[in-house]
Structures are given as structure tokens and as C-alpha cells.
Amino acid sequence: MAIIIGSITTISVLSSNGSTITPASAGFQSVNWNINRQPNRLWQLGGWNPWGTQVAKTITISLTTYAEVLGVMALIPASSCANSTAAARIIINAQTCPAAVISIDEDLMYLTSYSYSKGDPVGFATENWSFQKWVAADGLGSGMYAIPAPSYVIQGRSEGSRSGDVGNGTTDLGARFLDEPGAWHTVEGQQGSVSAGFPGVGNADDVTLGLVDRVGDGKLEAGGEIGQSSATIPHQPLYVG
User: Fold this and answer.
1) Residues in CB range of 212: below 8 A, 6 or more apart
2) How far apart are the first and last CA of the chain?
3) Four-residue CA torsion sign, 154, 157, 158, 159
4) Residue 160 needs a FRET pair 20 to 30 A away by CA distance; which of 22, 95, 184, 216 works?
């Protein structure tokens, strides 16, 4: 196990063409990553040993930033066999104790979910970005079979929700609904809560759900206002030939 020292750990997020979306360590609160190999045992009759093991490998990275750090990412569903454009190159240089560097540099990390949150009327807003990539498994032993990297990763139509005064995709971004203003195929509900106290204070908000066509760049500071929005971006790996 290594202890990571955050004050000397750097993160950069770049677009797919290599241009910098944000400078290293500008406005990042936290990062989580996971390099995961998923075994699928091929069991057989007549014994307790598998005939073989099929292995898939994925890389996931989640970033928490202050609002306005990563800008806007358009969500464009696939119209042909082509990789999704909702992707980024993410570089993490994590400094550890004992002294070492854990270096992760992954291109074509596909955005799978986004959220914007400003829960305090006098506080600042944050954004959460989650990415995933499908890659070929490596370093396998005898009798183990790697699932290859997909030929394409296509993007589907994104669904999202929002409530409150900010992060609403109109006067400020967060999750913007398709064809907004005048967004279509949206539905509304309501949520609220209050607790006993002296005084007991709560809040109630309309909640709107719809199809989202872009996320990011939610307002960092909006005095006296709160809000939240989120989106799920479906990606499907395709294996061709």
C-alpha cells in the first residue's frame, strides 16, 4: 500500500485532439480511479476446475471539481459506427509515500455521468464527472482469454434531471435539455423536506426530467441560490470483425 500526498499530486484533462481543457491541478477537489479486471469462469462438468477464464478490463476515473473548471461537453448520440465525442484524455501523477509516482495517462475516457450541486445559498458549487474506458486485458496466464478492446464505443441519448435556481441550463449551464429554451419531452415532479427545530427550515423544488444535449460549466457562485442537475450518458462498446 502507498499513501498518496494530495498537495503534490497533479491532474490534467485534455480534449481528444490534445488541447488542454484545464491546467494541471486547477480547481480539482478529488479524484478516484479503478483499473478493474472482471473474470468470467468457464465451468465444466466433472470437476471443480474451470475449463478457462475469460477476462474483461475496464478503467474508471471520477473527478470532483469546483464548478466552471472543465467547461462544456456536448452530448451527441451516434448516427454511425464512430467513437463517441463525449471523451477526454486524463493524466494523473499521484505522488506517494514512500516516494514514488503513480502515473496514469488514458485517452478516450468516455463520460458516463455528470452532476452539478450547489446546496448552500452562500457556498460554492461543485461538479462530478465519471469516465470509463474498455481496454484489452493483459498479463494473463495459461488458460485465460482476454476480451479485446472494442472496435467502437458509441453514445446513446442522455437523460437528466435538474431542480433549483442554478445549474439549470438556461441562464447558466449544468445540464441543458434538448432544444432549450422550449425543451421538449420533459416531465416535472416535486421534492421537498423540512425538519422540526427553532426554527425548522426546509425547502421545496420542482424537479424536471428530460433529454440532455450538453453538460458542464455550471455557475460557481450565485448568492442566495441553490440548485442541482445531473445526467447519465449511455455508452455501448461494439465489436466489429
Assistant:
1) 75, 158, 159, 160, 169, 175, 176, 177, 178, 231
2) 41
3) negative
4) 22
